């Protein structure tokens, strides 16, 4: 097996250590993605732009190989194979081609370019008026939403989308629910085998044949003490600060030791809040962020209400997200509790 088997059609994008190629498998005539990795850069954890990074490609290959050995899962990216090209300097990872791209590109792109609009975030000041600033940040977002209006004209042709904050697209709840169940199903499988992702985000959720697929395992972690298929141990803890600002759980931001499975659940909650509203609730789960302080004090349901979406997102889904976005990780809903929640019991569209 080698590069002669795969015919490159185009380069999809650059990656941290190489590039992502759309290829055709000459043996099966199927389209696949081949992710190339400069091994020298990867082993030094240095990006192509010479920045230090945390992504561990060797662990990613190990985990995806293990997932395949376990039989795989329809909502976790499938790695067909991997090989090192002649000369030994470049690793090739052969992955499923997810034809619809990622959820960020597919579902959170502006419908209309606006000029002169207010920014939704509120900067900190030293006047001590914390509650007023937090309320103001959300009310400004609500005003923006009022200008664009979540209600749709009868002749609107946005398909599965509604207008969200600041003219961006927000996903209809029925469609978002389908993707949410997909992601939670894939994550449940991973967690049951002692694997936590630690970088769940809209960029790392791909769409294949109408379903969501978890990808990009460069920041994942394994609980080596867990037996395959059994619940992972209560001592599965990490201390590395990893992930993207919008999605990072508060216990990671605060540099506490954390259970990466509970952090994954927080990240999924943020991702689907964005799909349902078109905007993150805050920039970072840090006490210095007024939006986060508002959520910590009043809960995520208050944000839906302040943004004028309290009647547009069902009470049951708001309840699930509020429990996924519980600031205290010990009080946050667990995966097995999620699986018993009414949202997961609804018929899927």
UniProtKB/TrEMBL annotation:
GO molecular function, one term: ATP binding
Single GO biological process annotation from the record: regulation of autophagy
Pfam family, one: Pkinase
Cellular component terms per the entry's GO annotation: cytoplasm
Protein kinase domain residues: 6-344
Sorted UniProt keywords: Kinase, Transferase
SUPFAM superfamilies according to UniProt: Protein kinase-like (PK-like)
InterPro entries in alphabetical order: Atg1-like, Kinase-like_dom_sf, Prot_kinase_dom
Annotated region (Disordered), positions in chain: 146-166
Organism domain of life: Eukaryota
Entries under PANTHER family matching the protein: SERINE/THREONINE-PROTEIN KINASE UNC-51-RELATED, SERINE_THREONINE-PROTEIN KINASE ATG1C
Name of the protein in question: CAMK protein kinase
Source organism of the structure: Phytophthora nicotianae P1569
